[in-house]
Amino acid sequence: MKTSRYVLYATAIAAVLVVALIASFALRGGNQVATRPSPTIAAITTSPTPTPTAATASPTPTAGPAGAITGALSYPSEFIPPLTVYAVSVADQNVLFSVDTPRFGADPSVQPTAGPPGPRPSYTIAGVTPGAYYVFAFRRDTFVGNDIPAVYSRFVVDCMQPSEGAQKPIPSSCPDDHTLVQVTVRPGETVSRIDVTDWNCSLPGSTCPPRPR
Fold first, then answer.
1. Global pTM?
2. Strand pairing partners for 73?
3. pLDDT tens-digit profile of 66-119?
4. N or C: which end of the chain has fewer CB atoms below 10 A?
5. Quick check: 89 and 95 in contact, CB under 8 A?
6. What are 23-60's pLDDT values in tens digits?
7. Residue 211 pLDDT > 60, yes or no?
8. Residue 171 scores a pLDDT above 60
9. Taking the domains of the chain in order of start, what are their residue ranges?
10. Is 174:198 a contact under the CB 8 Å cutoff?
11. How far apart are CA 193 and CA 69, in angstroms?
């Protein structure tokens, strides 16, 4: 009887140990599952699409201070009729500056008398925007043939001005070139000796500028 009782006790203790062992394994497995870190999904960040920046054009350079053009006048007579002197842009003929000059000299019906020469007639065009210009003059009276202008030309530069400076007549060998010469006006500059004294642009082989309208 005692032996059977011991067997029963041992069996019960063994059963309890088995149950405890199984519970211990179960708890350990549960803890492992609970503590296993869940995988994290890395957030995918997209760089913002660069917005194209519109190119900004450089500001158009503005013209500097206005300049002026000045020079002598002449006419193939004892007087100089009233004139309008023009400075017309080489780049755009719609851009021009002008000045009206009075009549210089005696009345054409009066016989000129000998005497010391007075100041040489001249003109000045003020307020000229910097740029390149052709300079010429038209009569502004009702004289027939007043559509032939005086011009500032190669003939003035190469023949007339050197001869005047040397106080000598124009040599016959001087080139008969009546092509207009460009005059460059820089900001704030007065360009001098732009003598509008060549009245021969209508000769064969030459071209006269039209009267501005």
1. 0.66
2. 196
3. 999 999 999 999 999 999 999 999 999 999 999 999 999 865 555 444 444 556
4. C
5. yes
6. 454 445 444 444 444 444 444 444 444 444 443 333 33
7. yes
8. yes
9. 67-106+119-191
10. no
11. 8
Phi/psi for 93 (5° steps) reads -65, -10
Secondary structure (DSSP) of the chain: -HHHHHHHHHHHHHHHHHHHHHHHHHHHHHHHHHHSPPPP----PPPPPPPPPPPPPPPPPPP-S-EEEEEEB--SSSEE--EEEEEEESS-TT-EEEEEE--EES-TTSPP------PPPEEEEEEEPSEEEEEEEEE-S--TTTTSPEE-BHHIIIIIHHHHHHT-PPPTTS-----B--EEE-TT-EE----B-B--TTSTT--PPPPP-
Architecture of domain 67-106+119-191: Sandwich (2.60)
